[in-house]
Design a protein that fits this description.
This protein is an all-alpha fold. It is built from 8 helices and no strands.
Length: 147
């Protein structure tokens, strides 16, 4: 079960429960993988957050995906807080450079980035970099396509 990819402890427990393993066997298996250092929720949370944010998922999407996999909330929040701005900027740039290029207007790109959970304070400077500085400040939710 551990050979394909890293798992959170909760994923291991859920899998063993689905396979009908008794509680003592599950406890023994968890103790064994911890002892062998085959499971590390903190490390996996940090690596997964970094990968998701740099690939274009905003923090809200990263949080949702990893919580659904069983990442412990406190560990996940630490991972999201560490280096958050740099990772978000990398993700924004990835999206602006590749995935969002067909969206031609600043407003469309701003809405797409905001819908992925990126923070406005990080979106606006990156949009300025792509589209140039604005003459007047606008909010990400503005509906005008002339932004």
């Amino acid at each position: 079960m551990l050979h394909a990819s890293d798992k959170f402890e909760a994923e291991i427990v859920a899998r063993l429960e689905r396979e009908g393993c008794p509680e003592p066997a599950i406890a023994y298996a968890l103790a064994w993988v911890r002892e062998k250092r085959l499971v590390d929720d903190a490390r996996l949370s940090h690596e997964s957050v970094a990968k998701l944010l740099s690939s274009g998922a905003g923090p809200d999407i990263a949080r949702q995906k990893l919580l659904s996999r069983g990442a412990p909330e406190s560990v996940l929040e630490d991972a999201l807080a560490e280096g958050d701005d740099d990772r978000q900027i990398e993700g924004i740039r990835t999206l602006l450079g590749k995935k969002l290029r067909p969206l031609s207007t600043r407003a469309q790109m701003a809405r797409a980035l905001a819908s992925r959970g990126f923070e406005e304070r990080l979106i606006e400077p990156e949009l300025d970099r792509v589209f140039g500085e604005l003459s007047e400040p606008r909010m990400v939710g503005d509906t005008e396509d002339t932004i």
